[in-house]
Design a protein that fits this description.
By secondary structure, the protein is of the alpha+beta class. It has helices spanning 12-25, 27-49, 315-336, 338-345, 349-385, 395-423, 426-445, 451-460, 493-516; strands at residues 55-57, 60-62, 67-68, 74-77, 79-105, 114-117, 124-130, 139-145, 150-154, 158-161, 173-180, 183-189, 196-201, 213-221, 225-230, 236-241, 243-267, 270-271, 278-279, 283-287, 290-295, 299-301. The chain is elongated, with a radius of gyration of 29 Å. 44% of the residues are buried.
């Protein structure tokens, strides 16, 4: 008998070839994997084809569009900006005396606007250096927020925390933003004399070479007020209501080659159906060198839109088909007594099971890769054609989602194979594998469980692997309903996949140990 390490008659490569021959010669198994691909592709494209959207105002509907930032990500870039030109290096210093605001609540009396005083946590007022006033342009800013202290942000996705203090009429906050070439540094102070660095930034597309003209000035923004209510059946209802913030600035000083007079822009303002009347416009007044500026909107990443993983609505159905095939790949031999024959041909029992795992994992990976590679780009194209605003992602992220789904499918197949080897009964093994992977995911994403319970399910069970689909991250500086129902998982994509792979590896080891002990 040939040494298994040589790859001879009973070596591991031979065992893999034998298991692959078994698999491909059973039409039902091949058909099952093919069905898994068809389910993912067909259900995903069908869902995309049925999703239509339009945007507009006053009965005038148009296709939904997105503003993109310097990195190509979707962004919200709406704020009121009082600014002047700055050529080359320089700085702007201001004192933020106060920040107040208004929030619209649900109408207590139909037709009567219910507006109360207040500011939302991420309302922000501060100073900014921006590459012009077009939406999505590169920028750096240092600001005070209503409940998150002083922050320095740039190019929408980058956020650094400074001091924790806010502003009030009796407790102003000084801010300074300096520019040296392509580097901007933000400072804060409580008295205008002792300064603390908040952070530094090198915005991607801010001009750094002469004349390096930018716009420097004061801005105010106020994101919508988000509330989440749960219905009787556990479903969540999310509402975002209008807010605005007003900040008072004084002690304004611009140093460097500042040109022109102060001008103002309501950046990103929406218009009524007539195309001329601003919808919820910002405004400002100036008196004695003090500016009172009112703004709405936000300067931050945008998470409002359809994500590419929404095209994978058929993945759960496809995984069920994969689970059934993987279980049958081992239980059929047990049921017919053929697995003992396999062990006689390959006395190293663990190697025989490992060969099965390699074959079913490789086939499942190929099936998942094919399904995701077809569904994600084609589904996104269909969604855009139907007027949906699909959140853009990098090519790397799209490839990570496709490869991640393939790896997820392979890990689920190995886990199901191990369940089959441990349980030995087809129906029970399918139920066990589905109960470990599919059921927790359905429960967590269907909003039938409290949010905390749903998140723990997706941390501790193999269903954590579904996190690999997530293409848009949570942003700490953006208030949103980050729930499994909305496609946000409690673990990062690769960490969630690692949890699933850990379960699959553990189950495979247990199955191999059982087989080695001779309980075949």
């Amino acid at each position: 008998m040939t040494d298994p390490t040589t790859g001879g008659r009973d070596g591991f490569p031979h065992l893999v070839r034998a298991e692959w021959t078994k698999f491909r010669t059973v039409r039902g198994w091949v058909a099952g994997m093919t069905l898994a691909v068809v389910l993912v592709v067909a259900l995903g494209l069908l869902s995309a084809a049925g999703s239509h959207a339009s945007c507009g105002m006053g009965g005038v509907e148009t296709a939904c569009t997105l503003t993109t930032g310097p990195g190509g990500e979707a962004v919200s870039d709406r704020f009121f900006f009082v600014h002047r030109r700055l050529d080359g290096d320089g700085s702007i210093t201001v004192r933020v005396d106060s920040m107040t605001g208004r929030i619209r609540l649900p109408d207590a009396t139909p037709g009567v606007r219910n507006v109360v005083a207040g500011v939302v946590p991420w309302a922000k007022a501060g100073i900014m250096v921006k590459d012009g006033v077009r939406e999505g342009a590169s920028y750096a800013a240092v600001m005070v927020t209503a409940r998150h202290g002083v922050r320095m942000q740039h190019d929408f996705t980058e956020d650094v925390a400074g001091g924790s203090g806010g502003v009030s009429p009796g407790s102003p906050r000084w801010l300074r933003l300096t520019r040296s070439g392509g580097t901007l540094t933000g400072y804060e102070s409580v008295d205008g004399r002792r300064w603390t660095v908040v952070g530094t930034a090198r915005p991607a597309h801010l001009p750094a070479h002469p004349p390096a003209t930018v716009e420097a000035g004061m801005f105010v923004a106020s994101p919508g007020d988000l509330t989440v209510s749960r219905g009787d059946l556990g479903g969540a209802s999310v509402q975002v209501r209008f807010t605005e913030a007003t900040a008072v600035f004084d002690q304004v000083r611009v140093e460097g080659r500042a040109g022109g007079t102060w001008s103002h822009d309501d950046v990103g303002v929406a218009y009524e159906a007539d195309g001329r009347t601003p919808h919820h416009p910002g405004r400002f007044t100036e008196s004695g060198g003090a500016f009172a500026i009112t703004g709405v909107g936000d300067v931050a990443p945008s998470v409002d839109g359809v994500r590419i993983e929404s095209t994978l609505s058929g993945l759960v159905a496809g995984l069920v088909a994969v689970i059934v095939v993987a279980v049958l790949f081992v239980t059929t031999e047990h049921r017919r007594g053929l697995f003992r024959t396999t062990l006689l041909a390959a006395p190293r029992r663990g190697r025989a099971f490992a060969a099965k795992a390699v074959v079913v994992g490789a086939v499942a990976f190929a099936a998942g890769l094919t399904a995701a590679a077809l569904t994600v780009p084609l589904g996104a194209r269909v969604l855009r054609a139907n007027g949906n605003a699909v959140l853009p992602v990098s090519t790397f992220t799209e490839l990570r989602v496709v490869a991640g789904v393939a790896t997820l499918t392979a890990a689920v197949a190995v886990l199901a194979l191990a369940c089959g080897a441990l349980v030995r009964r087809g129906a029970a093994a399918v139920a066990a594998a589905a109960g470990l992977v599919v059921v927790p995911h359905i429960l967590a994403t269907a909003s039938v469980l409290p949010l905390d319970v749903a998140r723990w399910l997706l941390r501790l069970t193999p269903a954590a692997g579904f996190a690999v689909q997530q293409s848009v991250p949570e942003y700490a500086q953006v208030l949103g309903y980050y729930s499994p129902q909305g496609g946000y998982y409690p673990l990062p994509p690769l960490a969630g996949l690692a949890v699933l792979c850990g379960y699959a590896a553990l189950a495979a080891v247990l199955a191999a140990v059982r087989i080695r002990k001779g309980d075949a």
